[in-house]
Amino acid sequence: MSKYNDKNRQQRLGDRRWIDKYAIGELDFKDENSQPRKREETPEEWKAFNFVSFGSGSSGNCAFLGNENGGVLIDAGVDPEHVYRDLEANGIRLSKVKGILLTHDHADHIRYAYKIVRENKHMRIYCTPRLMGGLLRHHNVSNRIKDYQVSIFKEIPFFLAGMKITAFDTSHDAIDNMGFIFEAGGKNFVVATDMGIITERAKHYMCQANYLMIESNYDRKMLDTGRYPEYLKARVRSEKGHLDNKMAAEFVAQHHHPGLKWVFLCHLSNDNNTPEIALENMRKMLEENNLSVGDGSFAALEREKDIQVYALPRYDTSSWFILED
Question: pLDDT tens across 274-295, in order?
């Protein structure tokens, strides 16, 4: 049997020279005994990340990241008609969306994954084998979803839609949770959502961000005095739960570097947070570190600020961001 088969694939991927030279995806191996194909360079010059969120929170999560020529979806918990309509409105054809990257198997992140790939058969679902096993245990997820999977592995880069992508481990009470770092055009976009603590490995990748999408789920006082039963409050506060506003703000302030230009606050609780409170926590902490904070509006005066902070809407589509700085 060939040394390039799947059984030995992970071991070979540990060689950084091999990673940089070859793609990692569903088309890498023509058959079981074939040689890996040399990675093709992206034909167009990468000018800027295009980013939009179609919804962020326990009601549903889905975002697009790429450029004007196409990209990927991150999670699939928002009604596809909403996603399709807003992609088309901003000039992104569905044929240019290469696939869905899943962060974990909770319903608000995977609810429409099978529907999307079934309706767009060129797309694939990128997740670890263990995460796919978690999806298959959901009673309302078709077993046929596995036919659309491309296996990825944490901390092993792969190439998709012109971006080099690496998944990393996060701490949450679901199956094989992960964040992602996307590298293109000399810039890094990092997605870090649904985690109770920031582990050292997550920190390693989050500190490389030029653009950071970070969970700011709840206000501690609102949670403590709110209507949630005690067991649910304990779950939210746990190391496998969610980040509160203070934890998110402290991390960004402590690890800020001149290259970090945008922070997107995601997965805000409907019951235990507000965009105003989350933004104020982040703004206050950054200003205490002598940083000027913009509101992400692209207004002339705001663009000159050291860092932009924007809270992603829970139910609605965010602004369409073209991230060039």
Answer: 999 999 999 999 999 999 999 9
For residues 180 and 74, give the distance between their C-alpha atoms in angstroms, rounded to a whole number: 9
Q: Are 140 and 125 in contact (CB under 8 A)?
A: no
Contacts of 165 (CB under 8 A, 6+ apart): 72, 101, 126, 152, 157, 158, 159, 180, 181, 182, 183
| 227-244 pLDDT per residue, tens | 999 999 999 999 999 999
The sign of the CA dihedral 92, 135, 223, 286 is negative
As a whole number of angstroms, the distance between CA 63 and CA 77 comes to 10
Angle at alpha carbon of residue 134, lines to 128 and 135, rounded to 5°: 90
Q: Cα–Cα distance between 262 and 321 in angstroms, integer?
A: 10
Q: Compute the chain's Rg from CA coordinates.
A: 19
pTM of the prediction?
Answer: 0.88
Q: What is the pLDDT of residues 143-163, one digit of tens each?
A: 999 999 999 999 999 999 999
User: 44 — phi, psi (to 5°)?
Assistant: -95, 150
CATH of domain 47-323: 3.60.15.10
Task: Give dist(CA 297, CA 22) in Å, integer.
Answer: 39
Residue type at 234 in one-letter notation: A
